[in-house]
Write a structure and sequence with these properties.
Elements lengths: L4 H11 L7 E5 L9 E7 L1 H11 L3 H8 L2 E3 L11 E4 L4 E5 L2 H24 L8 E10 L6 E10 L7 E7 L20 H10 L3 E3 H20 L6 E7 L4 E7 L7 H14 L11 H15 L1 E3 L34
Parallel strand pairs: 9-12
Antiparallel strand pairs: 1-2, 2-6, 3-4, 4-5, 5-7, 6-7, 8-10, 10-11
Helix pairs in contact: 2-4, 6-8
Keywords: ATP-binding, Kinase, Nucleotide-binding, Transferase
InterPro entries: PIKfyve_PIPKc, PInositol-4-P-4/5-kinase_C_sf, PInositol-4-P-4/5-kinase_core, PInositol-4-P-5-kinase_N
GO molecular function, one term: ATP binding
């Protein structure tokens, strides 16, 4: 590029009016490359930039990270979405569905308000931070055909961590078991977590569990208020630091008519009578999610952990100050 990083950032500043919610940047590619022209639509550009100022090293670092990515196999979920990860491991890029993009458009201002309040008040939250939503449109010059890609950039919760096991928890047990062999790297599910807690439990201190419950309570109250369900708590086991890394992910989907229909069909025809389907109303989802996290995260008394040492507690495997950060339980800043 004929612009330096500083000049490029200044150029973008000049293109974005202070009161603009969304901006579109059109770019042309040399014909010698044989590619079509494309444009990038930046949803809520200024609001996302304000959020990144709170939790990213700098805007230039964010741009530099996104400029170097690789395809990434997330090893979990049923959506088969495209994933990429920045080479510095800081950010994850996920292609989201059109319905998720449109849902975020509807509740975006509530999201920014909630995140800002969490930063300013120091209230507990474990929402994995969404740091940008982009719509990329590729146009083929010969045919005029357009291809749309809706992309989300979020913090990588496991950045700088040695994660040996991961769980994706929705608070449901029906059809929530992954039979993958141990050590495969696959993301495990709710039934795996329950089984593991029975056979080889992971303990946290009472204080850590209270912080987790407070964060889950705050976040699920917010997500219920914007009619969102089907989110997950991603839990990573960092054996090197003997800590748990937690964050709520996949919270872009609102409870629309098709999800209500799915609830009815699964309740009537698929799910055993003593179990609730995975897809239920936001209010019921919130209650079940809270109950699961309260029940299956096992705690020990705080005094069982050594207060005079920085070494991890032998029983709970968690440093004394673990999970005490005001912005996220795992103490990771994006």
């Amino acid at each position: 590029s004929r612009f330096s990083s500083f000049d490029g950032l200044s150029l973008l500043d000049s293109l974005v009016p202070p009161d603009a919610h969304n901006i579109e940047v059109s770019l042309g590619v040399s014909k010698s490359l044989g590619k079509g022209k494309y444009s990038v639509f930046c949803l809520y550009a200024n609001q996302f930039r304000d959020l990144r100022e709170r939790c990213c090293p700098s805007e230039l670092d964010y741009i530099a990270s996104l400029s170097r990515c690789r395809n990434w196999d997330a090893k979990g979920g049923k959506s088969k979405s495209f994933f990429a990860k920045t080479l510095d491991d800081r950010f994850i890029i996920k292609e989201i569905k059109k319905t998720e993009y449109e849902s975020f458009e509807k509740f975006a201002l509530h999201y920014f308000k909630y995140m800002n309040q969490s930063f300013e008040s120091g209230s507990q939250t474990c929402l994995a931070k969404v740091l940008g939503i982009y719509q990329v449109i590729v146009r083929q010059p010969k045919t005029g055909k357009e291809t749309r890609h809706d992309l989300m950039v979020m913090e990588n919760l496991t950045f700088g961590r040695n994660i040996t096991r991961q769980y994706d928890l929705k608070g449901a047990l029906h059809a929530r078991f992954n039979s993958a062999a141990e050590g495969s790297g696959d993301v495990l599910l709710d039934q795996n977590f329950v089984n593991d807690m029975n056979s080889s439990p992971l303990y946290v201190s009472n204080q850590a569990k209270r912080l987790l419950q407070r964060a889950v309570w705050n976040d699920t109250t917010f997500l219920n208020s914007i009619n969102v369900m089907d989110y997950s708590l991603l839990v990573g086991v960092d054996t090197e630091r003997r800590e748990l890394v937690c964050g709520i992910i996949d919270y872009l989907r609102q409870y629309t008519w098709d999800k209500q229909l799915e609830t009815w069909v699964k309740s009537s025809l698929v799910v055993p009578k003593n179990l609730l389907p995975t897809v239920i109303s936001p209010r019921e989802y919130k209650k079940r999610f809270r109950k699961f996290m309260s029940t299956y995260f096992l705690s020990v008394p705080d005094h069982w952990c050594s207060q005079g040492s920085s070494d991890p507690c032998q029983l709970c495997g968690t440093p004394n100050d673990a999970w005490s950060q005001p912005k996220s339980l795992n103490g990771i800043s994006a």
